[in-house]
Design brief:
Number of strands: 13
Largest sheet: 6 strands, mixed
Low-confidence stretches: none
Helix content: 25-40%
Order of helices and strands: EHEEHEEHHEHHEHHHEEHEHHHEEEH
Number of helices: 14
């Protein structure tokens, strides 16, 4: 495709189950595993000519808020940071990591250690903190590559300083490149003013430019030719779809099955009620979540008969009506339901990236029949198609699966595993229990 730089690996150490920013993007909670997998990723990218930019220094995963909405805060002690994030970054740096993305995340313990006189109001996100970028990252950890900022339109930066000061301040603090303009003409003027007034010294400017040119030289971009448009046909080839299937086959995780429901034979539990719990659409004209129809197709192809009631959003998509709330609050006679339904599947596809600080299970309307009521009536299983922390809100689910993605490949493999055609190979860590005893039942 002509790409030569990837903002990955996501080498954050996830220790907070509430974190939904890197919940399914990071490699996990074990620094050793993160190091191993990040190195493998780096090696494979190097083979095909892509430079890696590990992120989000000084580290997301211990935080539960979204840096798109406010400054993040890595609140680990220096010793805790050294044993987790520091260990990861040092290992990747020693392995030849060429670039790092700095997050709009502060690290108060190290800022205070490196600047003993710093006041609380002076603690800045790493992107504006020379003590974190120059003293910690370049000095203590020995990083000599390029530092790029996370997106410059994120509130984690915007609330730290006026943009006129933040734009040159990023470079002055130790960043070498800024990700995204706001207004190009204005941002360039801010940068020029920062050079003119000495915010950015000539030495710092030269250093940043040399690192940019060094990364380009490493990639051979002086001889790089962008491919012809026809070569974009490489996207979506069979080999890539097969890789997606392998990923699904290896990763989908049976978190628990304390009711011994699996595997399910469609011949014996044929009639399925599918509750698809989705995030509110950005706008009603967007239509239903496409994953719902794909999941129905895959279940029916496996031999199930599927009934999938519309949620409040879908009803409103057909035209607004005050009656829709009442329709969602309808009751089901239990004996009739048990006579007509063999199995309930609850599929949860919550999204909330850059929208809310913590993503939890939300039903399309209050007191609706979506809210789990079937677990004591008919066999019920739950699957998450995204985040891995939904047991906190759904501990009543005795069979719970983390499937990680709402794509055709993952949904196809999910059904194969539910029906016993493929074994569950994924492994969950302790964070899936969300620190609660009842989630394990």
């Amino acid at each position: 495709m002509g790409c030569n730089w990837t903002f990955a690996p996501v080498c954050d150490v996830v220790s907070n189950w509430r974190n939904t920013i890197v919940n399914t993007r990071a490699f996990g909670s074990d620094p050793e595993q993160i190091i191993e997998l990040s190195k493998i990723y780096m090696e494979e990218m190097k083979k095909i000519g892509l430079a890696c930019a590990a992120k989000h220094f000084p580290g997301d995963g211990s935080e539960e808020r979204d840096q798109h909405l406010l400054m993040g805060c890595n609140d680990l002690s220096c010793e805790e940071w050294d044993a987790s994030f520091g260990k990861v970054y040092k290992s990747l740096i020693d392995a030849g990591l060429p670039s790092i993305m700095a997050g709009h995340i502060c690290q108060p313990a190290y800022s205070r250690k490196l600047r003993p006189d710093i006041r609380d109001e002076e603690i800045m996100p790493a992107t504006l903190a020379p003590e974190l970028l120059q003293d910690l990252l370049r000095g203590q950890l020995g990083f000599n590559g390029l530092i790029v900022t996370d997106a410059s339109h994120m509130a984690g930066l915007l609330n730290a300083a006026p943009r006129s000061m933040a734009v040159p301040g990023l470079i002055a603090a130790g960043c070498d490149m800024v990700l995204f303009f706001n207004d190009p003409e204005e941002d360039i003027a801010y940068m020029k003013q920062g050079i003119a007034d000495g915010t950015i010294t000539a030495e710092r400017l030269d250093d940043a430019l040399h690192r940019i040119l060094g990364l380009k030289a490493m990639l051979g971009l002086n001889q790089h030719a962008f491919p012809d448009k026809e070569k974009l046909s490489v996207v979506g080839q069979l080999i890539h779809r097969e890789a997606a299937v392998r990923a699904a086959r290896e990763s989908i995780t049976l978190v628990k099955d304390t009711q011994k429901l699996l595997p399910i034979d469609p011949a014996s539990l044929k009639r399925v009620m599918l509750y698809f719990i989705e995030s509110a659409p950005e706008y009603l004209e967007a239509g239903p979540d496409p994953a719902k129809e794909v999941f129905i197709e895959e279940l029916e192809a496996a031999g199930f008969e599927v009934t999938a009631p519309k949620d409040f959003y879908e009803l409103e998509m057909r035209g607004h009506s005050p009656a829709h709330k009442g329709m969602m609050m309808q009751n089901f006679a239990r004996e009739n339901f048990k006579a007509e339904c063999d199995l309930v599947i609850v599929a949860v596809h919550m999204k909330g990236y850059a929208q809310t600080n913590n993503v939890r299970v939300n039903y399309s309307i209050g007191h609706s029949h979506e809210i789990p009521w079937t677990t004591q009536e008919v066999p019920t299983l739950c699957v998450s198609l995204n985040y891995t922390n939904h047991l906190y809100d759904m501990p009543m689910m005795k069979t719970f699966i983390n499937a990680y993605a709402p794509t055709r490949e993952y949904l196809h493999e999910l059904v194969r595993k539910i029906t016993g055609q493929s074994p569950f190979k994924g492994q969950a860590n302790e964070l899936v229990w969300c620190g609660r005893w009842e989630t394990r039942l």
